[in-house]
Design brief:
alpha+beta
């Protein structure tokens, strides 16, 4: 058998030969090499004004020559102060409904309003602008108690009862039931006084408690000394009895 290498189809056939490559541009030049242009190309927004952002209006603060507008922090008038409340126009003019006049009396201050039968007394108090201190809201703690017809009634659970025509439902509020003051501002004169008072009270309490603890410590030492003396006397008596 002839074991010599036979010619393949690609050796004797030019139909499967790869196509001739074109000469390289860099090699064709006589010693010249062309470099790629890495400069930034213009975008669409550079050459087109249609996508440019709209011009901003000048700022009002910057336009003024050194003038700065400060915010007005003064208290604004309420609608009742501008137009007038129930005492000025009547309860019908301000939209209050009801057939029973209600009076909240606290010392010399008297606040009046109108209510309907079965209306919660807490709502009537808020409607009249009368401050009542609440805690549990269930009628269990008694914080909101007011006096009505000589009896203490809890505002959170009480309701306006039927009244004879022309009679007012009078509610007497305790003088101690006043609205707490708001917290003082930081770095205000009031905050300085509050901090000074708290520091003084803290130092007084520290000294007082220290003296009490010293007294208790001395009493403890005396009691321990007395116990030791009693124990020593008992041991001595027992030893004497054993010797006899």
């Amino acid at each position: 058998k002839d074991w010599s290498k036979r010619e393949t189809l690609a050796v004797g056939c030019t139909g499967f030969a790869p196509p001739a490559r074109a000469p390289c541009a860099k090699r064709a030049g006589a010693g010249t090499v062309s470099m790629k242009d890495w400069s930034k190309r213009e975008t669409l927004a550079v050459g087109c004004t249609g996508f440019a952002p709209p011009a901003r209006a000048p700022c009002a603060k910057r336009a003024g020559a050194g003038t700065v507008s400060m915010k007005d922090w003064s208290k604004r008038e309420t609608l009742a102060e501008k137009v007038g409340g129930m005492s000025d126009q009547g309860f019908q003019a301000v939209g209050l409904i009801g057939t029973i006049p209600v009076e909240f009396r606290q010392n010399e201050d008297v606040r009046t309003t109108m209510a309907i039968v079965g209306q919660p007394l807490s709502e009537v108090a808020a409607q009249a602008g009368q401050f009542v201190k609440y805690k549990c809201g269930k009628g269990e703690c008694g914080t909101c108690e007011v006096r009505i017809d000589g009896q203490w009634v809890r505002t959170c659970t009480a309701k306006v009862p039927p009244m004879p025509s022309g009679d007012a439902f009078v509610v007497n509020v305790r003088a101690s039931m006043v609205k707490p003051k708001g917290a003082s501002r930081f770095f205000s004169f009031r905050s300085f006084l509050d901090g000074f008072r708290n520091n003084v009270l803290g130092m007084v309490g520290f000294v007082t408690e220290g003296r009490k603890s010293d007294k208790a410590f001395n009493e403890r030492l005396e009691n321990e000394k007395r116990i030791i003396e009693i124990a020593a006397a008992k041991r001595a008596a027992k030893k004497t009895a054993d010797v006899q």
